[in-house]
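Researcher: I'm preparing a figure for a lab meeting and need a structural model of a single chain. I don't have an experimental structure, so a prediction will have to do for now. The sequence is pasted below. Please return the structure as tokens so I can convert it later.
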Amino acid sequence: MMALAGAMMWTMSSCESPLDPLPLEYKEDPNFAAPAIDESWKLEEMVNATDNGYVYAYKDKLYDEMFTRTHGWNGGDGVQTTLLPGGHLFWTFNDSFYGVVDAATRARKSCNFPRNSVMVQTAGSDGRPGNSEDHLLWLMDYVQTDNPEGERYYHGRTHLRHPQATLSDADIQRGEIDADYVYWAGDGTVVNGKLQQLWNGVYTGDGNMTGLGTALAIYNLDGTPGDGSYLTIESVDHNYLEKNPYSIGQTMWEDEDGHTYLYGSFQQAFVSYPIVARSKTHDLRDGLEYYVMDNNGDYSWVDSYPTADFVNPISSTSLSMPWVFKKGDWYYMTGQAFPFGTQMYILRSKTPYGPFEDCHNLFVLPKTLDKIGVQTYRFVYMVHLHMGLSRDGELVFSTNTDIDNFWDNFNADGSADFYRPFFYRVYKWERLFED
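Model: Understood. Here is the structure written out token by token.
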């Protein structure tokens, strides 16, 4: 049996059932006390966001405030992070708004739309990423920041352009943005003192989002943030994966077994199953191998990118944006109910390549946003896990949300609070797995 056919015969996980919130009094059991929360963290409990009464989910208002901005970057999706040496944190964004926002009304004004951008969050005195806007260093090539009355004030240029993009150098200098071939971020990893960052090519010129190949960029980590050389690009292999229809490398896990595991998704109709590849060494430049199942039902790691007939789902739960981490003897995977569900799942496995089962409902994302103006959204998407932001083993997530009409991202009250991340922390999640 081919791997795909086998996957489609699996029964749907119990995680597919909608969450039925429990009453407040369920949390009064003293054996399941709430975590100790420092007031300076500005966490706001999400009552009834979990269905067992002893996992605790919070809105992170401190980080929401840090990313509520009025100049330069004021919105972006695809929000991912990689922990760097020294406690710094590298951030990547896909399509981003750069320009100005009215502070009182939160109306997004004159902005342009770089297709990707990056930022480094510098470490605080405790060696962890600093928890204030002063620690956010935006590595942007601005068109101009001197004249508020002039054109393209705080507009930015795309960080990494696709080699097939067709705008001229003069267009780019004026602040024009590519609308055809673009790069959107995958995950990153630090190897031998260098950041290795994946960028997925996408063709958007026809109004669709057609996946292309994946590039591997190598970043310098010598020096200190802001010194002009730190996090500059040393090289880009634009043909690292000539084709990557399953977005392998969208997320990664660096394992103690000497491999880095790269996760993607196989989507068909109304399901999305996680799949995996791995690097032959921790250095991504040494090649990848892919986990597949052949016609005899045998599993193996192979050097060639899998076809649809042999791609091997590593979970029977349909989810998007699989994130894997390890605690104790278990590997855990988080993911969002597919497609665009508000339910977040957590599963586990004895290996980083699955199968990831024993699925539990982790928490439910809110259906409205804490903002002025319109508070409902069209989709919540790109729910990313940020282990580098965890203070005490809790799980930290960011979300993106959009609105029905793209042009409603401008001028209306509260428009700047669409298309930007909101943050959530989940404590005591281990209690879902009683053993």
